[in-house]
Design brief:
single chain; mainly alpha; globular
Length: 297
Amino acid sequence: MQLTPTGATFMLLLTTLIWGGGFMAAQAALDAGLDGTLILTIRFFLGAAVVFLAFMPRILKSRGKTVLHGLGAGALLFLGFYTQILGQGRTTIPNTAFFTSTNVLMVPFIVWAITKKRPEKRIFALCFITMLGMICLTLDDALRLSPTAGDFLVLLCAFFFAAHIVYLDLVCRNDDSVQVTFFQLLFCCLFSALALLLSSPEISPAALRSSALPLLYSGLLSSGACYLMQTRAQTVLPAAQAGIVLSTEGLFGTVLSLLFGWATFRYPIAVGGLLVTLAVVLSSLPAKEKDRTDPAT
């Protein structure tokens, strides 16, 4: 069945809703005492396994080029999630959610660096609005700036996720979406397992048992189902448009964490979140014709 742009957009919205709940799943596993690399290894093993079992005949027909493309996507995915989970352990769920969503504004600059096509002028203004929003998110109760190492790690993770979006658009558009999804999850699992071996954390059976549901959520839904949907949707939507839709993950993550008591409401969160969300919404509006035809410089 042919996927329409509208269907692809709804597919990405469902993806971001599931990912929004994934912030709480990751936090539950971290609070139980599991190491971040172990969480990622289990998560992406489950994701790769469910995709393989569901589409084994199709995956076994993969070409070498598709495997290599999956390797590149998996490397970027691992770097994004590794820096994100390290950062989340050092900051709040709302900050993690909103800072991750800034990847939407990084996508045009990465495309610029690769294709020499300059972003629209408004993107620069929206980056300024986003920066103001992030400043608000790092204010403490006394309205003093208090950025943490976790905030900077999550910003780094946003860059890797933006690079992943661009990579799928420029490199993997003509590949089989199921095959690319499987190999990127598989390689992400292998990179995570290597990081786990190098860090050699203590593994508690009790922590594993108490984290079973969050890990299943992260592996089967956030990884397996969501990356199938994202990769399929990006065969229809361009990188910039996909990035805009995917950035709603930050809004879903924050709202869900407040509703379920995983975060405490503070006014700086509301102001910062609104500014970041405003930048995301404005970036989705049609560009003026002058900006579209502005020559690259």
